[in-house]
Amino acid sequence: MSEHKFPYRWTLKDANFTKDKGAVFSCFSCGGGSIMGYKLAGFDVIGCNEIDPKMMDVYKANHNPRFSYLESITTFKDRTDLPPELYNLDILDGSPPCSSFSIAGNREKDWGKEKKFREGQKEQVLDTLFFDFIDLAKKLQPKVVIAENVKGLLQGGAKKYVSKIIVAFDNSGYYMRYGVSNASKMGVPQRRERVFFCAIRKDLYNGDFDDLFSKEPVLDLCFNELNINAECILNNGRGHSNGLLKRLWPITEIGEKPPGDSFFSYIKVNPKKPFPTLNGGSKKVTTTQMHPTIERYLNDKEMILMQSYPADYNFLGGRCGHILAMSVPPVMMAQIATRIYEQWLKELL
Predict the structure, then answer these.
(1) Which of 1, 171, 222, 315 is the most exposed place for a label (fewest CB within 10 A)?
(2) How much is the pTM?
(3) Cα gap 195→178, rounded to integer Å
């Protein structure tokens, strides 16, 4: 018997998606990382909203959604022609763009500014999209809302946004709790820390607010599965290299970043620990994580496994590392979705 609830090595063709736990709609769906987690947990994912046409193409190629909306959530939330299946969902899911709050980004310098992603879609003020998502929840009134974001949202001046998020959920008719989960404790071979905001519609809870989450409906999001270290995944295959790597690799110790302050995202992987959080690199480099014994960056197969994506996922020839880095690891979301079902939906509804 496996020591992990969900295997990180799996394929879409062999997966058994029972679709018996409830209906889910996903916003900011990217390549479909989170929705694969819901499917693994037994939910029926009925559709998605995504602004990037390339990401939507990848999503459709792998998941063939019943409902798909290629547009900004700022216009999607105001639609008057949504089908009845999107109202009173079991779960409304979303991962609002998080670069404004990431400790690896510009943080305060970018707050309130319109930005474009590298794919060239319309400009948006990224730090307001979370509130558009909550507006959509108020309109659709799902039983549960789950939103994933970077840990940096809980640090420094960004904490004021958390207070606003709590108020926005409250005004929309939801009780909400949040907490940080580490993917490496959930059966994912990666030290990826993310904050999950989990909200339940107020009419589904009849007790005192002071008892919420301490008595019923309790929601335990602590996971203590055994680590999966990088050595389980690292292979001897080929991978991308460039002039910078040839300069940095020889002077970088295993498990460390290169000397100096100019290479914040570069690291030589320690095979005895889970991988660091996957980053998307750049247009020329798929990731800045370096193999510990071979002078190269991690290759696609290694990144797919460390992100717990299925081995047969169709990236349509796109940059695998970029799509993976923007996604929630499926196994991570499968763990969250299972707890939501077992501790909220199954008992309360």
Answers:
(1) 1
(2) 0.90
(3) 7
